[in-house]
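Issue: copy button drops trailing tokens. Both records pasted manually instead:
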Amino acid sequence: MTDAEAIEVMGARTNNLRDVSVSIPKGRLVAFTGVSGSGKTSLAIDTLHNEAQLRYLEGLSPFVRQYITQRNRPKVDRILGLGATLAVDQRRLNRNPRSTVATITGIDGHLGLLYSRLPAIGAERAAGHLTTAHFDRNTPEGSCADCHGVGGRWQAQEDLVITRPELPLFEGASPWYAKWRSGEHAFVPALAEKRGVDLGRPWKSLPEEFRHCVLYGTGEEKVEATVNMTNKNETAQVTYTSSQPLRGALAEVERVFVNAQTAGAKQRYLPYMRKQPCGTCGGNGYDQAARSVRLGGLTYPDLIEVEVREVRTWAERVAGDLDARQREVGEPLLQDLGRRLGILNRLGLAHLQLSRSAATLSGGESQRTRLAAQLSTELSGIIFVLDEPGTGLHPADKAHLLDIALELRQAGNTVLLVEHDPELIARADWVIDLGPGAGRLGGEVLVSGPPADAAAHPASLTGRYLAGKGPRLRRARRPVGDDTGWVELYGLRAHNVSADLVRIPAGRLTCLTGVSGSGKSSLLGALATSVTAALNGTVTDAVRQVSGLQGLDWVAVVDQEPLGRTPRSNPATYSKAFDLIRKLFAGTDAARGRGVNASWFSFNTAGGGRCETCTGYGRKLVDMHFLPDVWVVCDACDGRRYQPEALDITYEGLSIDQVLGLTVAEAGERFSEPRQLAETLRALKQVGLGYLQLGQSATELSGGEAQRLKLASAIQRGAASRKAGLVVLDEPVSGLHPSDVQRVVDALDVLLDSGNTVVVAEHDIPVAASADWVIDLGPGAGPDGGAVVAEGSPEAVATAGTPTAAFFRRYAAGLPLLSEAHLAPVHDQVVAQDDHRVGGLSRASAPAGRDRRGR
């Protein structure tokens, strides 16, 4: 094929790609397939998209480029026929609390223009000239003068600091005093001695003046106390006497919260605090102009609090009320706004509020929100690179995703789809299947051709599923009977979830199901936080009461958040396997002869055996000024991270850097002792990470790989703990090839074998159908969801009249989950945009519960 017909890739070696050369047809829907870790994302995102982005940036002026964070240059000999790309990968959104659905999708800009340009309908326009900045609470013009756009501030609350006043202060009345220790804690006993107060009595029986001083401080009155503090770097204690006013528990909580350096550290203090709304703006963060100007009957802060589906209705109302003068300005804005809102609706996000914080979105919602921003363009000739956009989508919503991909193709674009779902892959025009295995065993193109070619290839695991020959998921279910214990949540209220009682069978695998936006992630989060708080003796606003925690000692949350941003973090360090490996090296005769210990073998410790030229990275970053920075191999250690003195010390014939170069599977074969190391490596292999190198940078891991590393750590924790725990997982098989799902389910059974309770939120029907207990949420999304509509065994839930139940029945009958009624063969006939329009604005033309074809 010519450059005009195809993208020609020659000699791609990014990550695990092995000198890949392949021709990718343009103007087609091309599916990149293969087992997890086979190199799909390395080819589609890290090679094609990164190269296209770098070529675009090279056309900008050097002055502009110095302010842009540029991607790494992919390792490839040559790429011909590559055009502009837009990509949505699996990176999580930034956790800036000011980032919302409206800001991510660009809808905030359209609304700001509408409110600043069109006169208010049915009300007087606010005095003065208004701009879009007046409707942005992140600007001086638009933010409330009293709270600066934040909407309020976190304040410590007495009832959260003192949760059990019937107990003595240091014996459980306050988790703050019982768990978190600081120098100030020593001044409370000193004050009690000074006032003659017995701290062994219940808190509520102590004198009111003393209790007030403990909570709010002593003002100018100083209290002298002797404080014993452990030196962080030594085992010795430091004793000193100080005389100062008692700050008070509430002020102390707020102080440590403000000074906490990480989000995780701040999270530890939130159980003692509530966010108090700003009295001036009522908590919305906007200034007077945004709170007073009305359009279509709503102010800007009111509008962004309603759901996307209601914003569409509002936009139609505004479009219908435009006069001739307003139409010239408002109609183009409303048309583009309608298109963006329509895409959000079709991607299963109609239940979201525009003000919804990015930090509160589930992984699938985050990715689809970013996808909606990219798909709102009407450009043609673009290469869209979509990395598993179906993540977090209920099977009932996947038809819309395929429709959108085909519409993009029909508009003259090329769509590169990284996908695992065989039913979606079968409807692609072209398949590029990588493999045959993962990591070092992958990185080769097995098939480049129509889906039928992949289905016929004998070495393609994807092809087996395309041909209908892939094995079904197998799991021996654990019965839920009269002797089963239950974890019970009373009065649960979290986002859209509202339930008087939610029951989780102890020691069983429970799956939360429901359409996208039905409340699965909200319930899962409320379960984890409320049980954690109950085990710590505190309470949360989400749940009124928690019971049935006998035997539970810990909670593990296994999500897809990145492990860290530093390249120094890797599977060996995260799993603590490297601690054990360094001890093995420190125990060799050569190490003892040199008098070095385990920390000397750490590449994170200065003054030890690491290479100081690259500080243990093995690479050095070269600042290229106006071009992308380049990582080059360290010339001092040749990329081996360590000095020659450290590399000379070997354990069973391997140097320390050679051990880091082993895959998990290879290391498992080499290290049978100590037992803890062997068990750690076995846990990593159990979750399907046998292909990862021990020293592979955590920044190169996908969200699914990061989640499985956390799952392996939970398995280790469950094996090491004498008491059972609660493990919650949000979509644990997202991003996994069907052949890898069995490994994760087997790993969940390992947790159950240790007596733990496992709860997952999952859209994958085979996984849900294998669970011991199912809680189906719905019946719809947003305010139409959040209720428990069915619960019980998968067979019991299958008899309900819910969307999930219908797919349970299809799976039990051995039918394709997405029939032709869900996914019509529309390769050559793509449905046009809605013909029914009001004032130039797209309108939903299908009845509720049906798509635009009336299916």
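Record 2 (pasted manually too):
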Amino acid sequence: MRYHLLGGVALIFSAQSALAQDAATDTGNQGGLADIVVTAQKRAENLQSTPIAVTALNEEMIRSKGISSAADLTAVAPSVSVTTSPASSTNMQLFIRGIGDIDPVLTSDSPVGLYVDGIILGRAAGSAFDILDLERIEVLRGPQGTLYGRNTIGGAVNLITAKPADDFHASVDGSAGNYGYYSLKTSLDTGNIADSGLKARFTYLHKQRNGYVDDVNAPDTRDPGAYVLDAFRGAVSFKTGALKLDYGFDFSKRESYAPAFQLTVVRPDVLDYLQASPALGGSAPVYSANRLDSIALNQGKMTDRVIGHTLTAELDLGGVTLRSLTGLRRWTNRNTGDDLDGNSGLVGFTVSPAVLAPPYTFNPLGVTPIDLFSTTNRRRQNQFSEEINILGNVGDRFEYVVGGYYFREHSREYNEQNFLLILPSPAPIPLTPQVTLNSFGVPLSTLLDYDHYNKSLAGFVQGTYKLTDTLSATGGIRYTHDDKHLVQRSPFVRDLSASFQRVNYAFSLNWQATPSMLVYARTASGYKAGGFNARSSNSGFNPESLTSYEAGIKSDWLDRRLRVNLTGFYASHSDVQLQQFQAGTAGASSITVNAGKARYWGVEAEVTAKPVDAITLGGNVGYTNRKYKQFLILDPVTEQYVDVKDSARFMIGATTTISAYAQWDIADLSIGHLSARADYDYRGKIYFHPTTVGTPYNDEIASGPRSLVNGRISLTNIDLNGAKAELALWGKNIFDKKYRLYGIDFGAIGYAGNTYGEPATYGVDFRLKL
């Protein structure tokens, strides 16, 4: 199939080559599509001349889509899926081409690298924080093991912030909407201070919202989905002679309440036990396969604090540039209580945990309040990284980048879990004349307590040689050495260390067939580091590897009125780190082993058209065909390994993604410029666990295909005595699509549930710029 796919790409090129010759125009064409400059290959390049599958959004696109953090990246590029997990509002799962990771444990590495101004965020947990002054987003699809290193087998995302402006500017951005939402952001650019080469920019943001599901036990400000955010960013640039310095500092504090977790399916014997609760003086159990607008929870506040420092130094040595990129980041998180059963006020007949161990003493505790599953957590992570680049050219034909990289990280987690194990009684238990039970509950708890240390060293080189004026070859290689160290106190007492080494490569041929058409073929490898799962009883797992083959076309047509970028790819994935979710007497755990092999092939298309100056149309489509070649998993019933490759599911990443938008610049009115925009986002069905072995309700809690529609009407360029103002009305999920955001299968203890995406939201934005 992959040969037909690549052949089809070549056929498209050959059929349209003559038209492309006529489409070549100057990049400054006023009526055509604008160029976007990216730094995906460590140097500034035109997006259409960069021979990798990369999508870029500029500041205007980011604002129109309402993107403020990595959690908003769904639909920005083909084959990209994003979700956030329960028990947090900042734990994010980012998948590209079906590759990602769902485990929020701090010893788990994501196979998609997330960067802020070139600094990697070491953990996916806590990464969905608001990033101020986003200027550009670059989404690189496919392995990026040469320039970006380990843990980028699925791809990499770089969030790039704005640098201080050359001139003085001040702006105020305000927004208000339903569910008590409002935000206020102020920014100040000093401009070039006394022509010294020193510039600065300062931004402060306050944002808050009530929850979007009514918790009958809490006020609106503590409903699920509620938050209060304060964030600050300072950026300073200095340039003198050949030296350029850019320093950035960011701080954010977010107090929030997790999305509502509700029961979707309950095992019959567990439901029978819970349905006795009203007769015993408690609440009735609530479960539903549809989103509930009102729910009774017992959850506390989560607090996330993020601090980051970034220093980029560039020294132009005349034909050679020396660059240093230094990053220091710290994240702390506290969850004072999260409800993962969607019910509060339940009571039930319980028995001491002594019934589970010899001599199996049956010690009744009576009718007590019960929690099916609740958790508290304290986590923190800090990291330091340093990267050195040497960029240069040899003559007119060869350009290169040589680099070295160092990364150090320390993570800590203290996670308490409380849950109820419901067991059948050997004889009926009469509690009242009206209530007789055939089962009893055993309240249990477990503790996850550990420190994790992580170090990585790497050296890399990549170069591009022009074989002819239109044909270039690019090759790169990277060596990486990783050290992992786990010091654990509970539920296992252990001290584990491991080291891993790997060499990755990339090679591509790039043909500038016409001034407006680039054709490329690329092969690249990547690796995800091995390590430990602090929840898993095994002693660790090895790295996983991926090798990708890709061909693509980037083209502009019709006097730059039409832009078409096509990609076809095939990837082979080995030693896949697979997880089996288990929930039982030891708590909820995810066992990680190297038990899988997989292959992927797919096609991606991005199209932008400007048929007339007033209208811009765009869209992208991603299709990824995925198949496990091996998936070994431990059957908890037989305690034997079985290969479930034919029935196993790929998690989170959808097989098909479709995104489209239409922008209409309606008219220049006397008071300003009127425009309208509509966005459409489709994502195919997704699963939250890989198999029904150990998670029997996986199919029942899956999220079906969903389509979202957003809209925005703007009045810009309003003149207020020399100041410029903007006013916009917006709506997200306009048709109030009810869709599942995440799911957890507690099948081993008798139930499963989901969180749901946000309902329809709407509001107004205002901007004043001096």
